[in-house]
From TrEMBL:
It is a multi-pass membrane protein. This is Small conductance mechanosensitive channel. It is found in: Cell membrane. Residues 107-172 form the Mechanosensitive ion channel MscS domain. Belongs to the MscS (TC 1.A.23) family. Its main location: membrane. It comes from the Bacteria. GO terms for molecular function: mechanosensitive monoatomic ion channel activity. One of its GO terms (cellular component) is plasma membrane. SUPFAM superfamilies: Mechanosensitive channel protein MscS (YggB), C-terminal domain, Mechanosensitive channel protein MscS (YggB), transmembrane region, Sm-like ribonucleoproteins. The chain crosses the membrane at residues 20-41, 61-84, 90-120.
Length: 285
């Protein structure tokens, strides 16, 4: 290759750079201005939704969709500035989208689950739920995942597809909650006396509602105990406090009344002459 050839290619390269330089500068400006406008628009929409007190899950979900849509539009503007044909590029995007869609079926299922959660509202941010073996408070509902903070302050991320297709227990959907506590007493204990102690205990606790009326009844006869079932209602915010205090105070009050907690026991009969004495006893019965 001669010096003239090198100069020829260098000049050709310079011409190409000069020819495309305005397009590159335009694309860079489009990216900078576009990202600034997208941020401005999404912040404006967020403030409007906050002012109208739109549900936080719907707000975050909508802003995410708008943000993604505007960035896709910006991408199309940038490639147009660079001189690419949008028709052929759209075909490539379509084919790539199909391939990605097949590869990410689980993610699409999570996205659809997120839409269903936003629309049907089986739970909201701040609700206490039990789902997929996780119990805690809903902290965030995003496009693909729901974030739950457990009661020991751990963040668990659950795919929306699993939440929309499986059982979810929402403890915050109702303003009242019913408790069911089993209290065991010995067989020789006075059931009526034990019932009165437990009813008086619930009567003294202002957190336990008097309507519906608390209940104490015999639920079952165990091998070593009579099992009493205690039922009462409480407001959602004070439920756990009432529950734990009742568990502690019921033991204290029953023991003060002379009703001790039963322990498993077994009667053993010893016969001096072995099985023959036992057979004679059976014959005499």
């Amino acid at each position: 290759m001669t010096i003239q050839d090198v100069e020829k290619y260098a000049n050709l390269l310079i011409e190409k750079v000069v020819a495309y330089l305005p397009s590159v500068i335009g694309a860079i400006l489009a990216i900078v201005i576009g990202l600034w406008l997208i941020k401005l628009i999404t912040n404006k929409i967020r403030k409007i939704m906050e002012k109208r007190e739109v549900d936080i899950a719907i707000r975050d979900f909508s802003i995410s969709i708008i943000n993604i849509g505007l960035k896709i539009l910006l991408f199309i503007v940038v490639i147009t500035k660079l001189g690419f044909e949008t028709t052929s590029f759209a075909a490539i995007i379509g084919a790539a989208g199909l391939a990605v869609g097949l590869a990410l079926q689980g993610s699409l299922s999570n996205f659809a689950g997120g839409v269903l959660i936003i629309l049907l509202k089986p739970f909201r941010i701040g609700d206490r739920i039990d789902a997929q073996g996780v119990s805690g408070t809903v902290n965030q509902i995003s496009l693909f995942y729901t974030h739950v903070i457990t009661f020991n302050n751990q963040r668990v991320v659950i795919p929306n597809g699993e939440l929309s297709n499986n059982k979810v227990t929402n403890y915050s959907s109702e303003s009242l909650r019913k408790d069911a506590v089993t209290v065991a007493i010995p067989y020789h204990a006075d059931i009526k006396k034990a019932r009165k102690v437990l009813m008086d205990l619930m009567e003294k606790d202002d957190r336990i509602l008097k309507d519906p009326e608390p209940q104490v009844f015999v639920a079952s006869l165990g091998e070593s105990s009579v099992n009493l079932s205690v039922r009462f209602w409480a407001d959602l915010d004070s439920f756990w406090g009432a529950h734990f205090d009742f568990m502690e105070n019921s033991k204290v009050e029953l023991e003060a009344a002379g009703i001790m907690h039963p322990f498993p026991q077994r009667d053993v009969n010893l016969y001096q002459n072995g099985p023959s004495d036992y057979l004679k006893e059976l014959q005499n019965q």
